[in-house]
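pinned: reference chain
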Amino acid sequence: MYIILFMTRGMSLAAWEKNGSLERELALYTELAQYGCKTTIISWGGKYDKIIANRYPWLKVCANTWNLSQQRYEQLMPILHAAHLLQADLIKSNQTNGADCAWRCARLWKKPFIARCGYIWSQFCKKMNSDDLHISEYIEKEVYTNCNIGIVTTEESRQFIEQKYNISKEKIEVIPNYVSNSYYKCPLPRYASGKKHIITQVGRLVDQKNLFSLIKACIGLSVTLRLIGDGPLKKELQQYAKQHGVAVEFTGTVTTAELPCLLGESTIVTLVSHYEGHPKTLIEAMARGCAVLGTDVQGIAPLIKHEINGLLCTTSPTAIRAGLERLIKDESLRERIGQQARRDAQQFCITNIARRELAMYQRLPRETAFQKCSKAIAIVFSSMPKLIKKLYKKFFRSIDKRILSLAMRMIRLYIRRKTPADSLRLLFNLEAELYSLEGQSAVAYDGGVHTKHRHTRYHDFFIARLRPGEYVLDIGCGNGFLAYDIASRAGARVTGIELQAENIAIARQRFAHPQVEFIQGDALKDLPADSFETVILSNVLEHLPGRVDFLRKVQERLRPRRFLLRVPLFERDWRVPLKKELGVEWRLDSTHEIEYTQEQFACELACAGLYITDFQIRWSEIWCEARADVPYVQERSPSPQVTVLMSVHNGEKYLETAINSILRQTLRDFDFLIIDDASTDASSAILSDFARKDARIQILTNKRNLGLAASLNRGISQIKTPYIARMDADDIAAPQRLEEQLAYMEQNPSICASGTWITQFTQDTYLHIYEPATNPQTVRERTLFNGPQIMHPTAMIRTEAIKAINGYDEAFLCAQDYDLWLRLLDYGDLANIPKSLLFYRIHETSTSSTKIEQQVINHFIALRKSEMRFENKICNNIRSHSWETVFSLLDPQTPSFYVILSLLIHRNISNKSKKISMILNKISYDPQKINKLYLQNANITWEKVTAFIQSKINNNK
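pinned: its structure tokens
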């Protein structure tokens, strides 16, 4: 028997697959295939539906492969799919919405028609106050009046159809929803109360399902509520559950194969909807043997016999809670009703339902062989043009293969005569030319729009994050397709701006929409200020030379709350860095100024004052949501865990960005203490403004410039929180820095200070990620034998530890952090989190550039003092930090001797060779007196030292 099944209007196999219902929807027809039935589905989807259908040998799909509009496709269905419709033994609808299309095809080709519905569409529209109520009643009357057989899932539905549309009782069959046999084969759940209590509800997250009442009923219960499904209320439900302290697990949609296992883990399965049709999820739970709790409403009450195979309650939270408490407490009740539920659900097993369907099909009139033969002849004549076209295509495909084979032979012969590098250059250049042609053909293939729009579905990323009525600016909108899609699908109000006149002309012609305005011009000059909530930059940033400055200017002029960004990824393929290495064009587009690594992208956004809230890598691209707003706090927490400590002296240029990066932390509960070290620029005004806006900020002002160490000590004396997080006035903290560092310190009580890796940048340009040691033992060894391993502005320090060692040594005008780490090692361990959580700015006024020589001196003195403390020698009599002090403290049997050698060789120090010679005098230039291990730890060799001295002597000569 050959069945033609019409899908619900607008639905496709791809949509079934996405929402996890594909296997469930096809299960009946898989079962019927065992009885010799073949099925063809008339889908509203595209080519991908045919790919899905190839998985099932009994299934064929007729899809909208012509990319027609839904209205045009609906009109042409009887002709487009005539070959399949003529061969059918019956035509069947899956739901009422779309059954009118099935009826028109059945009427045209004189085929038996079965009108099937899982629920009464008009009743659903009435309860939802839908505008489709009139059309639903019209279609129901048309299809049930003209069908050979109507199928409904409940007796109540049959009575409604008979009475409302005056249909004879014999015409309507009641065939309930089915359940896969796998549910009955699963072992019964463990009803014992030893396991944790999980309450599960399956279904869309919509008002109909009464989920807010269910969450309210769980307040105070020691349970986990598991909601399986997706829907528009997800965020509201998450927020509601969080506010009321209910543990809710949102699993999203799950596959048919996963559902029985999830149901089996559940203590109770609920369905507390306001109304249902014939709920498949409920009978699946019953078939699984679960203890079920349902509301006493249409669709649910007929299935549950109170206290026999389940419990019934009203839709109120109080009644739901009473039912839950009773089932949680009474293990024997759960077991009794669960086992009875499985027995009662046997009637819904798919084998029984398939037999009933087949018996009904066999009652329908079938065409004789002569009738089918006559129609087959008609099909042959109607398909002759198509057959000729197919043979024509086959001929030219054969020609194409020969041309391709010949071209490949020529290329292979040609590159054999070249070096590997030249061969690669040739092949990469050929690939670039082909890529350009492929793009042009892809645009032509989809009628003027690149196929990447529907394949990558990047539009969905933007649309899912926008709300109806939101004011959106699409900068560099191109031909306007994205702006149009956002307006039509998200309901946002979109302004698309583009410099190229020809693109704007195409946009206005092809993608006009009442909620879209297309403007030719410059976003920074031709738009009103403060008029957009969201700015979209889709494949735009990479074309701009001054990207960070551009993003800053967009924020200053338009004041958007957030940006939605899409840029190409450099790390998309191993060939990209190889092309760059060979000097071949490596960019996807030669007009690109950059193609980003993840680190470069994060660095540029941080420099622009944006923080990332959503980051995805899809289709070799970065898709990102970044926010520009600062979430100020108006009321300080009474007991924060962390105080962020910053000192600033004349740091107006970068101060605002640094402070904003702290205020945007995912950890909201902290204090922020800033020491104004007698600034004479605008720093004081900036600090005062921030202190007015955010209650967490406290300002201490020095009457005179004390320097970093003294300012930090003043701040430490005021701090009472368990942890201190350092921050510099010119750096940028990643949003999750405080949260991750606090968690790490709480989990590792032996660590008295931790740092992180850093992303170094200069003049808004990414340099690299510096990755110091992370393991506490390695950090200890390298700190004692080499140099500091914790970058000062990344540090989080236990307050009790830093106070125990009396804070910073104020004698150190620089390298005070190294001295601090060395003294903290006497108190506990140091470590680094292996993640870059700070953007570290390198600029002309940074300490590391202007005080190198003093840093070297202080570095040595800090290390030598640490060694002297270990040797129980007095080190408090070091009064000056000078080269004279360095030479007086040298000891060839300590690591510091070799560290100062290494620093002199590798740093830009005046009179370098003379100083090295003075150090080597300590060992009389005798290599036998050196400590080889310490020399190796300092990352130098004796040959390197002597060679350096000799080169200086030769240069002087």
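why pinned: The first strand starts at residue 2 and ends at 6. The CA atoms of residues 32 and 358 lie 7 Å apart.
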